[in-house]
Please model this.
Amino acid sequence: MRIEDLQAQVDARWAERDLPSWPSPRPAMDPPRDEEYSRVSDPARYRIVHERARAWTELLSELPGVRSESMPSAPLDANGRLGSFDRGTRLTSDREGTLPLLLLERDAAITDHAGSDGGPTLAVLHLAVAEPTVELAFHPDCGCDACDWGSADLLEAIDEAVRHVVAGPLVILEGPRWQAQWHPDGGSSGGAGRGPDHDRVMELCRRLTEGEDVRLPRRTRAFVGSSWLP
Model:
């Protein structure tokens, strides 16, 4: 089994569903207009992020040794986002060294110009590993028209995060207000706090996947996952 085979199956099943699809509003990479930053033209179409998570859940649950279980909702935390969700699914593989994948759905209030949020909601998907606060990705990161690059771009971002967990190896380092992610195709680091040098932290992640005993920066947690696939 290859991760490319799983991706093809998700795409095939998705094509059978009657779900919103839209092109990028700026195919020529034109900059957004000022008014687009405060406008959410069609919040209902973003339900595709929840539906994509459910499509992956269905498919991954069919793999040998993979278990799916529902998670109780979690309220908003102090920063209003991290670890909070309305519905969640925890997917685990019985293969040694794998990380649980958490697909967490939230119905986010859309605040209008007057500051009220009594209108429609925006579907948001958190992808995490091990526990809800260990965030892998967050889509859409913003639902305004200025940040919209079309449905294909949005679905690929979700798929990419799932593939990193399932295909492995994957490393996430979490320090005080910073995080780093590493996978064989690359990695990222950053946050609100001051983390270690990017090249240094990527090297630490790589060494962790090779089973080395490395010294991590102070107050850093490491999450190391291997492939779910035989």
